[in-house]
Amino acid sequence: MDWKKIVERYYPKYYTIDQVKVFVEREKITEAEFLEITGEEYVA
């Protein structure tokens, strides 16, 4: 499953930035992908 595409589709309309952080914590997307999607550095 391509989690990055899913998160991109639903952020920011349906997912908050905190919800996107959970994808990083659960290793579904990388910190680099988090930056690409949100435009912000990942901070745990």
TrEMBL record:
<dbReference type="InterPro" id="IPR010022">
    <property type="entry name" value="XkdX"/>
</dbReference>
<dbReference type="Pfam" id="PF09693">
    <property type="entry name" value="Phage_XkdX"/>
</dbReference>
<protein>
    <submittedName>
        <fullName>XkdX family protein</fullName>
    </submittedName>
</protein>
